[in-house]
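Hello,

Our lab assistant flagged a job as stuck in the queue for most of the afternoon. It eventually completed. Since we weren't sure the result was trustworthy after the delay, we are filing this so someone can double-check. Below is the sequence as submitted and the structure that was eventually returned. Let us know if re-running is recommended.
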Amino acid sequence: MDRLKTLTVSQSMAVIFFAGLSVAILFAAASLIGDLSERRKLAQDRLIVAEAREIGAVVHEMQRERGLTAAWLAAPLDGLREEVTAQRMRTDEMVTRARLLLREDRRPGQAGASAPDFPALAAWLEQARARADAGRVGSRAYRDLMTRETARLIGAVADGGTAAHSGRVATMSHALASLMAAKDAIGLERTIGLVLHAARGTPQPGEDRAALTAQALVTRTRLQAFRLVADDESRGFLDLWERSSAVRRFEAARADLLSEEGSARDVVPADWLERADAAIGALRAVETGETARLVERLDGELAAIRAGIFRDIALFCALLLLFGGIAHVTRRRVDSSIRNLIGTVCRLTTDASTTRIRPCPQRDLNQISDALDILRAVQIERHRSQLATEALRSSVDAELDRLFAAIEQGATHGRMTVLGLDAHGATLARGVNRLLDRIERDRTPKAS
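-- returned structure --
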């Protein structure tokens, strides 16, 4: 504390400036940390959405593979075998793409979420395919295996929404999961229908037709669940999908397939597959549109936060340069004024008459300049008075020397002039004049 009392004005100004600068830096750093934290959360949410997008692509291909493989297991036809092989390659391509885009070190930690392990999924698919090729699993069992795996992947999308930081991302992730579940339900209808077609000509089990009827009800339930969690724009897209010609043609094919007559005559497998794929593809377009819309929003928010961070940094640097420059110029001006005052005081001690008092731009320091100007005038007047006194003293001494020289020569009639002398000189002159008067009276003879 004592050291602060001995600081110069310039040092005190520097301490005040840097104290304020430290507070500004502290608040700026807190704001920057908050922006970076928000940006990190948005980046994690965007990665969750990107993961949902890739999971959706994998699930879509797995659903197609499930339908073709289940139909091939129900009736091992060569044409179906070629389609199954081609579909397996597309599924593996999607799994590899997801594994490359969503590496473990890029995915945010999801507490309590079953994040998909794509290498493990690829290994599981190889095992399931080997069992199907070897005939160790039936059509319905294989369908159930693939359905459980796709359900696990869809559950990972919902878990990702639970781990999201943004409420909007969480809501849309759950909506995506509901939409994927609805699409998976239509995929199961497609699979059951293919199995029914593959086994055509054999006694049709009534339970398969009942399963298709029940699955259609599940599809409607899943779509209704999506409506409950989706926003108005998403519900509008779903309404457009339901009114599309692809959905109407698929529903007509399903109705024909469920009828006793149409299952064997009106709907052929290729037509059923084409109609189901068209409906599923249209719903897949709604799904990809949802993810693209959410990614676009998150990218916009990330860009806005990034621009805000750069703008805040630029503004802080500009303000720092501005106020730092103002503080530096002010400190230099105050230092210059103080050095000018100190130099003026030093010159006044030597020669006040030639010393020029410069005014200070600062009002308080200019008061000191005014006081020094008054002091200079007083010193000049005192100096002039001293010179006049010395001159007067010299004239008195000269007059005394003249009178004493006249007295030595016997002349006593001379007198000192009192005019122009100060009080001390006038007293001295009157005393000398009285002494000369007495001497002259003593020399004059008295009358008898």
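-- support follow-up --
The delay was a queue issue, not a problem with the job. The result is valid. Residues 209 and 258 are 6 Å apart (CA to CA). The chain is about 80% helix and 0% strand.
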